[in-house]
Amino acid sequence: MKKLWVLLPAFLLCMIGAFALKTNAAELPIDVDSANYDCGPIDDGSYYTTTWFDEGAEITISSGEAIDGVYIKWESIPNPWTLKAGDASISAGQYGFLHEYVKAGKGTNSVTIQIPSGGAEIAEVYAYSEGALPDYVQQWQPPYERADLLVFTAHSDDEVLYMGPSIVNLTHNNTARVQVAYMSDQYLTEPFRNHELLDGLWEMGVTHYPQLGRFWDLYSESLEEAEGHNDMEEVKAFVVETIRRFKPQIVVTHDLNGEYGHGMHRMIAKAVADTAALTGDSSQYTDSAQKYGAWDVPKTYLHLYWENQIVLPTREPLSDFGGRTVLQVCKDAFEKHGSQQGPTFWVDDGYDDDGNRNDYQYSCAEYGLYRTTVGTDTGSSMLENLVTYDEQERQEAETATQPESETQKVPDKEKKSGSGKILWIIILIIVILLIIVIIILLMRRKAAKERQRRQHRERLRNRDQRPQRTEQRPQQSNGRPQQRTQQKGSGQAGNGQRPPSRRTVDRSNSRNTGRKDNR
């Protein structure tokens, strides 16, 4: 039993040590080389410089340490490509991510990027050792199939400046599924801004890749000017298709006045407002209805809308963002948009540190409920009157495991979570093992006592079977000494026990006399 109590703490210490020894990945110093191509621009840490590689080109990345993975920032999304790591060929690029991390596996100091058909342009490339990657390494997931929140924004940085709190309040602690869709594709005008876009989203906790639109990002001072750059009906079709694809419970977009008047802001806001009641009608925009089915959005919010207003929280510290507030996270995300820094734009919730209104007109925390099918808000959460998709799936899974008959439902107090059941099973196993150990120890102790008793009885038997010895007694009247057998344990007068009976002595004498006569 003592050994058991010694081994148990030792085991726990080993487990704690194993977790403690988990190391963080380090960015490795690398050499980047490719025949006939200048690799300097992709190894300078800046996405403002790039190198184009033709189809079939190979880029070798070498390091003095084992490379566990490579992180690539493409200038434009390539076709699916291959990473060679030792004898392994790793397929990548299936999801079309502009920023992509590919795990190579430990044990090799050199990996090779094979450029796919159509060629590719690279902005940056990095390599990392084995371990937990730094937070800034973006490991994107594919877009959601169903999103709780869908944010429509005209172009990169608006999602931070005007809709940041709607995003961060729901990415915080994975409260809900957040999907962002952009009307424009920055690659058509300023390719580097797509890098800023991804860096800013990642800073706000968005991990599912955004949808990039197909429209030109051109500045316009009015809705009419914006409609001269892009067709309004095509923008509406894009909005409807995106809504039907992601089936959001909440849609958030720009101010109808375009915040400070930007024509593209107005254009996407009008497209969302005009189609809000049409997305659930399969007879409208039939192409997307046939592809994804119809979908009626429960709640649609517009930035700064004057009816059914809601003010989102921005000043509470968030544990999973290192104690930063929603406002600070949004400010940090905006700093990722390096090309947009200056006195013109900044993140502000419209209040000073004392909670009083300031002069900023475009508070990122204020929205209005433009359309609802589930009732109006009474609090400060966009999720009011809704159940997130994660919670819906949890409830569906819980229901599926219960009997169909209402009379056979298990009372709530008897329901146990999967983790709770596992814990009780582990405890039960430990108790059973302890009982078995105790039984074994008791049986061994009992067997030892039984051996001791047998050995004691054996010693007693051995003593009883020792040879007899003869004592000389004083001679009797017949002139011969009286012999008397003394056995261990036999009674003697000298021991305070009765002497042999007279009859026994007489028989002995008569036998002795008889032998003498015969001789």
Quick description:
The protein has 519 residues and is α+β, with helices and mostly antiparallel strands.
Helix amount, in percent? Answer: 25-40%
CATH topology of the domain at 149-398: Rossmann fold
The oligomerization state is single chain
Tell me the major beta sheet. 7 strands, mixed
The CATH homologous superfamily of the domain at 149-398 corresponds to LmbE-like
What is the CATH architecture annotation of the domain at 149-398?
3-Layer(aba) Sandwich
The helix-and-strand class reads alpha+beta
Q: What is the tally of helical segments?
A: 12
Task: Determine the N-to-C terminus distance.
Answer: 76 Å
Total strands: the figure is 18
Mean pLDDT: 86
Strand content: 15-25%
Radius of gyration: 44 Å
What does this structure look like?
The protein is α+β, with helices and mostly antiparallel strands and 519 residues long. Among the domains are: 98 residues, Galactose-binding domain-like (Jelly Rolls, Sandwich), CATH 2.60.120.260; 250 residues, Rossmann fold. The chain contains twelve helices and 18 strands. Strands 12-11-10-13-14-16-15 form a seven-stranded mixed β-sheet. A five-stranded antiparallel β-sheet has the order 1-3-8-5-6, with no helix packed on it. The protein has a four-stranded antiparallel β-sheet with strand order 2-9-4-7, with no helix packed on it. β11, α4 and β12 form a beta-alpha-beta unit. The longest helix has 47 residues. The chain starts with a helix and ends with a helix.
